Structure formats: structure tokens, C-alpha cells
Amino acid sequence: MRVAPEVEHTDPDGIDYGWVMQVTFIAALAVGVPIVAVASLFVSLPTWPERALFAVRVGAPVWLLISLCVYGYARLNQD
Q1: What is the pLDDT of residues 14-58, one digit of tens each?
Q2: Are 6 and 28 in contact (CB under 8 A)?
Q3: What's the distance, CA 42 to chain centroid?
Q4: For residue 64, what is the DSSP state?
Q5: Closest C-alpha to 14, from 75, 73, 70
Q6: Pair 51, 45: CB distance under 8 Å
Q7: pTM for this model (two decimals)
Q8: Is the pLDDT of residue 71 over 90?
Q9: What count of other Cβ atoms lies within 10 Å of the Cβ of residue 22?
Q10: Which is more confident, 31 or 11?
Q11: What is residue 67's three-state secondary structure?
Q12: Which of 15, 41, 56, 62 has the highest CB neighbour number within 10 Å of its CB?
């Protein structure tokens, strides 16, 4: 079994999109999940399909806003 060598340093040209995706994922979990959970307290969601659709309807705009903020931060702070 061959193991890929560890990558210790990257040198992207411009914005590091890998970093943007990773930070967006973690921030969406840390911020988005509580927002969806609190918002679901005020809505009747008796079935699993309704719960899933609600999570997508509320979570998608939250994820989009977070991703745009992270991208903007990366763009402003690129060396």
C-alpha cells in the first residue's frame, strides 16, 4: 500500500481556495447549525422531508453568506 507524501506547505497564486473551502465548512457548522436549530423552534416540522427541506432553505443562504465573507476576507488579506 502506497501512502501519498504529506504536503507541508502550499504556495498558491492568488487566493488559496482550499483554505476558503475549509474555513467555510467549519464556520458553516459552527454558525449555521445553531441558526437552523433556533429557527426550527418556531416552525412546525412533523415529518423528516419537511425538516430536511427547512434545513436546506435556511442553511443554504447562511452557507452562501459565510462563503462570501470568507472569500472576501481571503481576498483582502492575500499577500
Answers
A1: 888 889 999 999 999 999 999 999 999 999 999 999 999 999 999
A2: no
A3: 24
A4: H
A5: 75
A6: yes
A7: 0.75
A8: yes
A9: 12
A10: 31
A11: helix
A12: 62
